[in-house]
Design a protein that fits this description.
Length: 239
């Protein structure tokens, strides 16, 4: 079952009535009109992704984000997300730790994105070191005509000053100050109703693939590096 007008209708209703009293009696509609079509979208996208980024093929059930919001540390206590999103991450890097591809649908917009959004401290340092050494390569990737024409410039947040350990006069300080290295484009929500939407998303992912691969290089290298058994024993206090 493809994404339909009922998908957008449900998400619009959830945005207007973001309460358990509204959602729970309509949970079957959520599964029918939102979750199941998103699972099919992910499966279709996996077919495309397998051709140009096979390491990012993701099980549909794992790719889909839960509809429930984590409100424990948020002032916003609305219980549900009003968009349906899916993430495609590299199998060597834990989810939400590395660069990935992302697609989202809501009653307001359809989004196609890729890159690294708000990584942890260790991942951020690894990425900055990687960029410091190979910033020319990154700039060339970002200048690629197809990518820049569709996604524009890097988006997200940056630090006001040079991060610790990096000289303010570094030629790539604008890239090193970033907290996010991500590109995205938003389109009218009705875009997702087109039968060609999976192909449109996949074409965006294909353009983003070199950037995603570049950002993940140091993280994949760390994740796949053989462990030193002696070092592990020392850390654990054994000898």
């Amino acid at each position: 079952m493809a994404l339909t007008a009922d998908t957008l209708r449900f998400l619009a209703g959830l945005e207007r009535n973001n309460t358990r009293d509204w959602f729970e009696p309509r949970k079957d509609e959520y599964i029918r009109f939102v979750r199941n079509p998103m699972l099919e979208l992910v499966a279709a996208l996996n077919g495309h992704v397998s051709r140009f980024a096979p390491g990012y093929v993701t099980l549909p059930e794992k790719a889909i984000f839960r509809i429930y919001r984590d409100t424990r540390f948020s002032k916003d206590k609305r219980p549900y997300k009003t968009n349906a999103g899916a993430l495609f991450w590299h199998r060597a890097v834990p989810k939400n730790s590395g660069a990935a591809f992302y697609v989202s649908v809501s009653a307001r917009e359809a989004m196609i994105a890729g890159g690294l959004y708000r990584p942890g401290a260790a991942e951020t340092l690894a990425i900055r070191k990687h960029i410091a050494e190979r910033h020319g390569e990154l700039r060339a990737l970002l200048r690629a005509r197809g990518l820049r024409g569709r996604f524009g410039d890097l988006q997200g947040d940056s630090l006001a000053r040079a991060p610790k350990g990096f000289a303010p006069e570094h030629p790539a300080i604008d890239l090193l100050r970033r907290r996010d290295w991500v590109l995205w484009v938003t389109e009218a929500p009705q875009t997702c109703l087109d039968a060609k939407f999976p192909k449109r998303v996949a074409d965006g992912f294909r353009l983003l693939a070199p950037l995603v691969a570049f950002l993940n290089e140091p993280l994949i290298a760390q994740a796949t590096r053989p462990r030193d058994p002696l070092a592990a024993r020392v850390r654990s206090g054994r000898s």
